[in-house]
Amino acid sequence: MSSHISNIRPPFDQPLIDIVDYGLNSEIKSPLAYETARSCLLDTLGCGLQALDFPACTKLLGPIVPGLTMKNGARVPGTSYELDPVAAAFNLGTLIRWLDFNDTWLAAEWGHPSDNLGGILAVADWLTRNGGAMTVRDVLTAMIKAHEIQGCIALENSFNRVGLDHVVLVKVASTAVVAQMLGLTRDEILNAVSLAWVDGQSLRTYRHAPNAGSRKSWAAGDATSRAVRLALIAQTGEMGYPSVLSAKTWGFYDVSFKGQPFKFQRPYGSYVMENVLFKISFPAEFHSQTAVEAAVTLHAQLAAAGKTAADIKQVTIRTHEACIRIIDKQGPLNNPADRDHCIQYMVAVPLLTGHLRAEDYDDAVAKHPTLGAKIDTLRANIHCVEDKQFTADYHDPEKRSIANALRVELNDGTTLPEVVVEYPIGHRLRRTDGIPLLLEKFKTNLAHRLSPAAQQKILAATADQSQLESMPVDAFVSLFVV
User: Fold this and answer.
1) Which helix (H) or strand (E) holds 263?
2) Residue 362, exposed/middle/buried by CB under 10 A (0-12, 13-18, 19+)?
């Protein structure tokens, strides 16, 4: 009996169809989504500019092979690099994520939807410089849709529980929107998105002890650049894999998701961008943001009472389950990537100093003979306990709180009043207070890399929503080139 491979392919899995049809056919009508996307665009680029201060980041930038340039290539904001769009997406994606200071989405899976801007802006700049006619509004639309794809899949599907990193969703979302930007047909975009799912997915190894390391800071850059590459491959007419998710034995569900199909809470729209969480006050893993805010408050209360962190016997953090699962850890912390994912460290520093800055994760602070020793002593006495209501409110789609409560017991036996912070300053429910601070953060970050004249041009160009949206992408990116 002869055997052969059938040429009959199954229909595309419904989750792929839904992603692609949303990207192609959905019109975003929400003014709030576009206003929030504008804030997100500025904040995300500002985070990238700040990252240029860190040699551990900048050593990864530039062309894949030193010396390569591309005429009319994609520019990397804050630098003079002009690269092919795949390399440019890696560069920008790495800058955006390096300091763990860009936006966040928390649900069954967590992640940082603005990571997708690496691929979106690189492709938009490259296309516009080569005869395309893309405006910043097109970029904002792509951001809204990438946020929505990544965030809606994350609502009910936990990739971390099967050991996969959340950047798989960056790859999928970036592939879908970038393929549309490139002008691929519906069938070609379906092929591209299937290639993103069939691709090898990153393990979370680099986010957890004993292997926590700096790859977590460039993993999203890798994912969004890989998305550009896969979209370009699909543009050649390369085939896709329709049942990449559902195929028995060999599909994503069976291989990587314990045989479970994806679940969906809501159809794609503009919900994620409208509700995205901004990191405004602290460059800290988002599950700790409210704890750090509480620690800053407690530092001031200690000072007002004539006390210091040296008077602390024990700190109890009442928190939600995700926080305990991800960032509750004791023992040695080997590098900045380890420290910025340890809630004890992120609380100890502001209890001691009244602030938490990106530089506080570096060896100069953590291994300082005096301050570093104080941090280690204090964090050994900081313990987390789960509050079931905090966990429930974390998952409640109407609340999506990220609550933490800190209770400090002093050596003399007294206990300070517990400080509870339910929503961080970057939460949707604190937008009125948060957006002015977000713009101040952007101004501060512009000053990290750009001249006063360049800063003023950017602020003038981005001050008005409609003016910014009508701006050609290449003209916008030119404002950030040095």
Assistant:
1) none
2) middle
Q: Is 80 exposed, middle or buried (0-12, 13-18, 19+ CB in 10 A)?
A: exposed
Q: Would you tell me how many other CB atoms lie within 10 Å of the CB of residue 41? A: 22
Q: What tens digit of pLDDT does each residue of 218-242 get?
A: 999 999 999 999 999 999 999 999 9
Question: pTM for the whole thing?
Answer: 0.88
| Model confidence pLDDT, tens digit, residues 19-60 | 999 999 999 999 999 999 999 999 999 999 999 999 999 999
Using alpha carbons only, give the angle 220, 379, 102 rounded to the nearest 5 degrees: 25
Q: Which of 352, 351, 320 is nearest to 422 (CA)?
A: 320
Report in angstroms the alpha-carbon separations of 362 from 68, 135, 288. 32, 39, 18
Distances (CA, A) of 398 to 31, 111, 274, 350: 20, 19, 13, 30
Residue recorded with tokens 């990739």: 159
CA 271, distance to chain mean position in Å, is 17
CA–CA distance, 87 with 122 (Å, rounded to integer): 9
First to last CA, the chain: 67
Instruction: List CB contacts of 165: < 8 A, sequence separation 6 or more.
Output: 159, 201, 202, 203, 204, 206, 207, 219
- 8 pLDDT more than 70: no
